[in-house]
Design a protein that fits this description.
18 helices; alpha/beta; disordered N terminus; five-stranded mixed beta sheet
Amino acid sequence: MKLLKMVLVLALLLLAVGVVFGQKKTVTFMVVEADLPKAFVDKFNSANPDINLVRTEEDWTKWTADAMAGSASDLIRMGTGTNTAYFSKRGLLYDMTKMIQASKIVKMDDIDKPGNAAYQFDGNDFGKGAWYGISKDYNNIGCLTYNKEMFKAAGVAYLSETKPITYYDELYTLAKKLTKKESSGKVTVWGYDVYNGWVQFLVSDMATAQGISFYADAKKSVMNTDPKLKDLWKYWTRFQIEDISSNIRNPNSGWQGSAFQSDRIAIAQLGYWYGAQLQSNKGYNEKYGWAPTPIVRTGAKRVTNTLGATGIVMYSKTKVPKEAFRVWEWYMGGEYGLERARTGWGIPPLLSLRKYLPEDNAYNKSRKAIAFDDAKYFVSWQASPYIMDTPFNTAYGKHIDDLVKGTITADKFVDLMFADINVDMKAGREELGE
């Protein structure tokens, strides 16, 4: 009899264990390790025994192919939020609106709407319609960081923390004055360095401020050849043509951020997040200054954007939407979201987390105040739903060397760039059967 009871108890225990293990669901999360360290994965799994969170390496080409085939990572880090237009048009993103409306962690009225507008898309416009996610954090990418020591050495006054300078012509004039060359023509310090990957976002700000559209049609499927728009693209090329920025004659061996930290650049335009990186430099709080995003010309309205902001979205055909959403909530408004806000690497997506951003010195107070002031003027950059953001910087980078070498004119440069982008948009329309 005792043996029978022991057998029954053991059977019940095994049954219970089987039920528990049968309920455990795996959630895959495609994200770089820096944005989801193993320690946090382990913490989540320990606190949530019914979920097995697994980080997968970021590979958008593979993810897109898997998604088209009906199987892909459940959660995905979207590098540029406005790419939600591209992927949602193809039916690859999960509409998370109802889940967010019911959430007690990521509350709809707590979402910083302007900073996360790229993740809300109604098929035509950002900031309207369905929510496909939110940013993990965002930045005012147009704000200026500058080297005070270089300004002082050049006899240039420090920039205002409240009044924006103009692109035409203050930024250009400042950068030109701060550039240093040897007699051989080799540049030792660039006044400013154009970051090819962000030019389209800055041009968009300048165009939006003047009521100029990137596109010749309402569907945003053909580039606008308006001379006023072309002039905005040509504005940025003058920095490279005149050796004010790195170019084929005077190449930057790294990227703009590292060159600025190494005293090779006087002015950087990388946003709030960059301030956290600079804190690895000795004396950062005295050496670097901050200024708001420039305006086009004196009297022009202020416009800036978040680049779309890196955020997290969900695969439309996930088999574990409830579990994936729990991971998403934890990442945005739970322990991980709180930890990220405290680091000051970006402005948090939730208003309630803003209070955790560092304000321990004048440097952090300054960049935070400027970021929140710039945020009043956020407008999503003029993305097209037919392509991702990459064709813009690919086309710019493809032809800029020929322009610098003088083998093509500035007008030809823009024409070639637009032609390349139009080819990509045509392919996008065909993919959608339009």
